[in-house]
Amino acid sequence: MNTQNLIIGFSMCALVSCSQDKVMINTAQELDYCHSQIERTLNDLRDSSGEINYQMTPFASADSATVWSLNKVCKDEWRAGFWPGILWYDYEYTGNPEIEQEAENFTEQLEFLSKTPAFDHDLGFLVFCSYGNGYRLTKNPAYKQVILDTADTLATLFNPQAGTILSWPRQVESLGGHNTIMDNLMNLEMLFWAAKNGGSQKLADIAISHADQTMKYNFRPDYTSYHVAVYDMTTGKFIRGCTHQGYADNSMWARGQAWAIYGYTMIYRETGDTKYLDFVQKATDTYLKRLPDDYIPYWDFDAPDIPNAPRDASAAAIVASSLLELSTYADSEKSEKYKKAAIKMLTSLSSDKYKGGTQKSAFLRHATGHYPAGSDINASLIYADYYYIEALLRLQRLEKGEPIVH
Ligand code: GLY
Asked: Would you list the DSSP string of 135-198?
């Protein structure tokens, strides 16, 4: 295990009302914490004879619970790739072969997705967080084929008239047309990867078209985002922007904006086109300037009950991870701003207030899943933990002077 014990201290004058707050994070200590929470979860998953049912995956945990709630792996459980992804990240940190074995065991439950028609756009979350990280670390050729096949499956949802992927085939009727949600940006990474690793160039063309249309129609002039853009199914003409998981059609849903920040940072990395770099900085600055003091957003920036509204630690973890990457692309002034903001987010997430700690095996608490549906409010969420451990690994690479994404 890497026992590097680097502490970064920043005066946060530039960020928060010129207080002398010190922002401190010890990446090795926090990654060790993640590892011990993972060991706890694996123990919780074992039955009395020590067996794990790999078909059952952790997805959320109510604030008062001590263990994860589990769901069966299936095509419409969009969160099933995060737990194997967490195990791969932990294996990357620890080099522990038992963790590698568990990562393989959970990852391989998702192979069926490469062989069945697309249910919706979430295939990237499902397969790139699991098989993608697995292939990155092991170069297992069978994993590569699963990713390539799944990328082709995701591409079947592309509508050339609208120029975007249909995010939710099941919602065409209720939303009134072809729908494209902000979260869908995240799944483009698998298409870019496939195009560079033996798949068709058309996959990258689809990703670029989707990114451009989303930039045009899922944002308001102030760079805040609509969760959903609806297009005419046949002509592809844009109809309206609206919400599904946010407070209102015109509000800034925290995780939607977080997906946008992560998504366009990744799209700039994959394309090298500076229009995305310019755009993501505007979407980021809009987000940063409206954060509360601890940099963990309320679930929606326009929730009417702020400051009593629930927070969303998942949005904070997603943004922290992407800002560390963005800091490596931005000019020096912006780079410092984004790195300090990311470290401040991670410092808050790593405090007793936001950690599962001894009470529960999740890394984090106080995330919000689907507020309007009343589900997973003020809860631990598996994707919050996934982007938290990813951000810690990225910060550790920055500390070591290594490329942040590899
Ligand atoms: N992709 C679904 C969500 O962000 O809740």
From this structure: HHHH--HHHHHHHHHHHHHHHTTEETTTTEE-S-GGGHHHHTSEEEEGGGGGGHHHHHHHHHTT
